[in-house]
């Protein structure tokens, strides 16, 4: 597929100041009349034709300044509409198009999710509604009139504020919405349908009274309460943390069942995958509640970082996404435990972004070329993009960071900005030169940080040498939070190179001298994971044990446990010392911070272990070694785990609360159950079955089922069947059930999945179902996905092929599961390659899938 290059950016030749839309909703023949107020862009080419983007549109009528255009004045092609000789003055264009929302399986543009009409326009879906300058640097003021049948769509929502509504003949009605804030087309949205809602009011710091509502399928209103509360907390937090008030009279969130992404930040009308709105104790886990809180916040925060200040072009996607992920991470950290949340963020980064950065789909946080922008909504743009913002805050300190953010918003409000605009704001408030730092946006790959120490007991000095590398290129600006730790705790040594415990490594190598070091120190590096790098370990097992027990930085205590576990999984050896240290840690932390203790008990995932291996990866060997370590820990810690299980049991009748403290207790108790079962599967199966029976909420029920799912036998099959029957009418719960079965690391799993594909609730047209069943297998079952007989790869490839025609975006995303194929053991890699080549040869492949398959094979 042809590439679009950042270097070839040119301003639009035309601008559109105002858009008046009239949308008459109909299941198969929706009529859209767009009145566009156009003018030549002074920054554009004054001789250029007018090229409007369009995709799968039927043009019904076209008029310029009220006069129908003669047919020789324009040309329509599959990619748009061209006026070869447009006026060189302001003019209006009236465009009538007809759409078939019911047939729109791509879930881009206007489509139907069940009976609800909804839209998704990012990145380029608006061109599937009308012909337009569908690029983020064309900002317009929108007025939208929506008309529909009263019974089919009693609720009509648009961007901005409601200005008018009324009844029409023939059981029809209409609503008019006006959004005073100029915005790019990707932020356009409308919704029409039969929806229930929950609502509240919020008064902003400026005194604006805002009507806030969350709309869901009728009957599910109670499940929207948590999301509504999260909206209000987000609004308050953005005022307090960033001084950002809301700017319309209404804020609506709508949940729909068919959605390609997690959610979308359309101005004043966020549309969500219902997975990230609906929650009840009976149907959602603690993790679901946390995800709802985070994503509600994320989309709300986009109102400033994305909407008020938008992106000049799609290469700048990280400008809104990395920044907004950073903002939602800070929000969640303030709502919950900062240390625990940081660990969760880093696990996510290592599980998703590190492999991407090490494989054929690697790209800079700001890519320089793309064939299909929808393939760049990646962990690198989002998660590593957030890490860059976090590093910036570490470098500048909280006050200069906040001043820079204020400057960024003030200078770029109402503009389509670039990464340079962002960095300029921080450079100007701090007086710092951020040119070298900007390299983080440009250079793909995960840098390595190595170190060595030289301790002189006589002189009481310790020299710490840090060195960095990334593909042999020049050094990056790397904030390294660090300190020295001894067997008795943090060492109070003096080092003039540190500011607030942070050393900023700008050279390839640097040596820091600590004075007053009274005992042999262990360096604690990259505290809080201060930079998204790999730390090459020169620490011994004893050193890690010191950090595990004594570091003052909770992240690095957790990291020490992970490092110890990794060593044992990779190299084997006795686990006694590790188990003993974990035991002592549990004694201290389980009563104090159960969520943290639970994280200490969870070993690095199989994918994370694979990341650490340079040579050919054998997923079976990793799985076996990890399982053996879990079994050893389960046995060694049995008494303590049983004690935790008993002590943390909630008194009968305790009402469920999704708060962080209660969730932490459940997490620890369920982690204890899981390790116990690893140590003694027979007893574990009985214990898990009993817990399943006694569970009063989905968190505990699913955890027990997850433990049981790893133990083959009749008890497991019976429990799975009972769970499936109990939630037969709850698609979001069945997704958990699909996912759980798809990740069973046993040879029978592909066959089980084939069976589940015939389950009445499964549908290839619903992205959540496909992600749950096939996505979980592809991304979460390494031994079976990559198995030597090729059946795992074939299962996923067949789904990609079957899905591509209907929903290329979803198909392409699933295909990225092949991203690490080259690192696999040869016997497996050849099978993956064979399957990729088979996909590549399919005639009529979408641009989305063609792009991924080509890059993955390159
Ligand atoms: N812009 C969306 C987000 O919030 C993605 N569609 O990430
Ligand atoms: Zn976002």
TrEMBL record:
Ranges where the Peptidase M1 alanyl aminopeptidase Ig-like fold domain occurs: 445-536
Q: Which PANTHER family match?
A: PUROMYCIN-SENSITIVE AMINOPEPTIDASE (PTHR46322)
Task: List, for all copies, the residue spans of the domain called Aminopeptidase N-like N-terminal.
Answer: 92-187
Q: Per UniProt, which keywords does this protein have?
A: Aminopeptidase, Hydrolase, Metal-binding, Metalloprotease, Protease, Zinc
Taxonomically, the superkingdom here is: Bacteria
| Protein name in UniProt | Aminopeptidase N
Report the sequence similarity comment from the record. Answer: Belongs to the peptidase M1 family.
Q: Does the keyword Lipid biosynthesis apply?
A: no
What Enzyme Commission number(s) appear in the record? 3.4.11.2
SUPFAM superfamilies, A to Z: Leukotriene A4 hydrolase N-terminal domain, Metalloproteases ('zincins'), catalytic domain
Annotated Peptidase M1 membrane alanine aminopeptidase domain ranges read 226-439
Q: Which cofactor does it need?
A: Zn(2+)
For biological process, the GO terms are:
proteolysis
* GO MF, one example: zinc ion binding
Protein's UniProt keywords contain Metal-binding: yes
Query: Can you state which reaction this protein catalyses?
Result: Release of an N-terminal amino acid, Xaa-|-Yaa- from a peptide, amide or arylamide. Xaa is preferably Ala, but may be most amino acids including Pro (slow action). When a terminal hydrophobic residue is followed by a prolyl residue, the two may be released as an intact Xaa-Pro dipeptide
Which source organism does the UniProt entry give?
Methylobacterium symbioticum
Q: Which gene encodes it?
A: pepN
Q: Which residues form the Peptidase M1 alanyl aminopeptidase C-terminal domain?
A: 542-858
Q: Which NCBIfam families match?
A: pepN_proteo (TIGR02414)
